[in-house]
Every structure is written in structure tokens, then in C-alpha cells.
Amino acid sequence: MDMLLKGIGKVISLLVDEKGAQREAKRKVRQLKAWQRRLLLFVTLLLLILPVATSIYFLSPFPATITKVSLNASSLEVTTGDTGTLSATVLYSNNATGSEVHWVSSNNAVIQIDEMGQFAAIAEGNAIITAQASNLKSFEQAECAVTVHDPLQGYRISVQRTAVDNYIYIYVQPYNTDVSQIKIFAKAPSGQVFSPKIDANHLYHFYSETGTWTVYASLTSEKGVYEAQKPEDFVTIEITDISATDIEAHLSGLPVF
Question: 3-class DSSP state for residue 77?
Fold first, then answer.
């Protein structure tokens, strides 16, 4: 009896294993068919898209080669606080021109530039501004060397009267040490402006009009030009007698000769 029961159990076990194997086989078949459907869909889409993509690629014109980028300035000298605009011209192999570039500053702490080519001088120093042009076929760029100076700080002006009413010492002392040129201007009571040569002794002769004269100066250096602009840049002188000549000034001890 026990043997019979064991035999029946083995038969049932074999039947169960066989059904499990059949189910696993069916599952694998379903997976395979699913992958086949996906592959078929991919191939179908590829066959539909490839001709269109190929047509677009071969029928669309290639961009012309960029041959050169040129700027309206190859170098700039500006003063801290100055603003301005650089412009670029892009030349192509088909003789077309454009202006679309990417602007880059090598030192944003010195000078900054936006995508429109508008720059702002931030601090004293040197930098390179680059205009870059590129497309699928080429890349070109052009550079502008920029020097930023701090502005001239102005000057101190003073006068010293002499024993002769119309002979006066005028002293202009720049605050900066790199000033290369000083010009003195004297505005007469009538409004006429004189620009006498700088005298080695700082002595100046007022001979054309009596009244209140206004005296001021301008400075020039590598940093640029400083024009009188602040109240302390001007000094007024009252002239009441213009009759004295160089001889009389010399006799009074002034260094006119």
C-alpha cells in the first residue's frame, strides 16, 4: 500500500513539474513575441524617419565658412567710468557679411562687455576684448586691446600779486605726477580767452583789459585730458592798471627778461 501511494505521489509530482515547465515556456514565448513587436516597431519608425532626415541633411544648404572677423577698433584707451560700444563685422566665404558675435572680456574686473558690444570701464588695468563668431563649419575671432586709466585728479591753482598790478605769478600744481602738459587759460572781462605760453618763472603779463579776469588750466597725460570743472579749478584776478610794460616790471625786480 505504501509503495502504491509513493508511486501515485511521484506521478502527481511529475505532472505538476511538467505544467510548471509549460507555463515557463509560454512566458518566455510571450516575452520573445513582445521583443519582436518592439523591434518591428523600431525598424518601421527608422524606415519612415531615415528618408526624411537624409533629405533634410542633403538638401539643406551648408552654412558658408567664416573667413574673418573685424572690429571697429583694434585698441582702446579709456578712463575708469567710461562707456562705449564696439562693433564687429563677420565675413563669409560667399561674400556675405554679418554682425552676430559672442563678446568676451579677459578681465571683467577691468572692463566688462555685454552681448550688444556695449562696454564699461571698471578699474585701471589692461584687458583684451574678443569677438568670436562660429558655425558648424568654422570659427574666427578678433581682439581689441584695452587700457583703462584712472582719471586725472585735477590741480591746485594759486596766484601771487607783485608790486606791478598787471604782472602776476600763477602756479598750477597737478595732483597727478604723470602730467605731460599744462595749459593756462585767462578769460578777460570781455569774455575773450587767452592761452599764454607757460612761463618758466610762472610770471604772466595782463595787458589788454582792466577788470576781473578768470584764470584756469587744463592737464594732459597718458590718462587723458583734465578740463577745469570744479569751483576750485578757477581763480579770479582783479586788474586795475594795465599801463606797466616789461621795462617797468624789470626795473621793479621782476624776471621778465
Answer: strand
Buried b / exposed e along 174-210 (16+ C-beta atoms within 10 A): beeeebeeebbbbbbeeeeeeeeeeeeebbbbbeeeb
User: Which residue shows C-alpha cell 606791478?
Assistant: 164
**Count of Cβ atoms closer than 10 Å to residue 215 Cβ:** 23
Q: What is the pLDDT of residues 72-92, one digit of tens each?
A: 999 999 999 999 999 999 999
- Does residue 240 contact residue 246 with C-beta atoms inside 8 Å? no
Check residues 130 and 15 and name the one with the higher pLDDT. Answer: 130
Rounded to two decimals, the pTM is 0.56
Separation between Cα atoms, residue 151 and residue 164, nearest integer Å: 38
d(CA 237, CA 102): 56
CA distance to 200, 254, 255, per residue, from 185 (Å): 16, 22, 21
Reply yes or no on whether the pLDDT at 175 is more than 70.
yes
Letter string b/e over residues 240-252, b meaning 16 or more CB atoms within 10 A of that residue's CB: eeeebeeeebeee
What residues form DSSP beta bridges with 149?
A: 79
Instruction: Report CA 227 to chain centroid distance, whole Å.
Output: 26
Q: What is the largest CA-CA distance in the chain?
A: 161
Say yes or no to pLDDT of 176 above 60: yes
- Looking at residue 237, its amino acid is I
CA distance 65 to 137: 6
The DSSP bridge pattern shows strands 88-92 and 66-71 to be antiparallel
Angle (CA) 191-193-198 rounded to 5° is 150
**What is the average pLDDT value for the chain, to the nearest integer?**
89
